Amino acid sequence: MEGMSCGGCVANVEKALGEIDGVNKATVNLNPPKAKMRVNQTISTNILQAALAEAGGYRIVEEEEKPKKPIKGCCG
């Protein structure tokens, strides 16, 4: 998510996500701006994005996957 700058933003996003059918709980962090949700059904990204846009013009930003480091054994 982009554009959150205060505790009010966090509360608005948590409320918006929490009102989506199927979301049991939404927890939002300000720094870094991330949301975690407990859901009881599959929810489309479009529905999540619409709720974020309505909550304050926020948008979903996908994280770049970090390359995994190879696991080294005791000899190498």
Count of DSSP E strands? 2
Taken from the alpha-carbon principal axes, the silhouette is elongated
What is the topology, as strand order, of the major beta sheet?
1-2
Helical stretch tally? 2
Question: What level of helicity do the residues show?
Answer: 25-40%
Major sheet characteristics: 2 strands, antiparallel
Q: Average pLDDT across residues?
A: 84
Percentage of β-strand residues:
15-25%
Based on secondary structure, the structural category is alpha+beta
Radius of gyration: 16 Å
Distance between the termini: 40 Å
- Strand/helix succession: HEEH
Low-confidence stretches: none
Characterise the protein shown here.
This protein is about 30% helix and about 15% strand. It has 2 helices and 2 strands; from the N terminus they run αββα. It is of the alpha+beta class. The chain is elongated, with a radius of gyration of 16 Å. It has helices spanning about 5-20, 45-55; strands at about 25-30, 35-40. α1 crosses α2. The relative contact order is 0.23.
Keywords:
76 residues, alpha+beta, two-stranded antiparallel ribbon, 2 helices, 2 strands, 32% helix, 17% strand, elongated
Summarize, please:
By secondary structure, the chain is of the alpha+beta class. It contains 2 helices and 2 strands; from the N terminus they run H-E-E-H. Helix 1 packs across helix 2.
Explain the layout of strands and helices.
Elements: H1 7-18, E1 23-29, E2 34-39, H2 45-56
Antiparallel strand pairs: 1-2
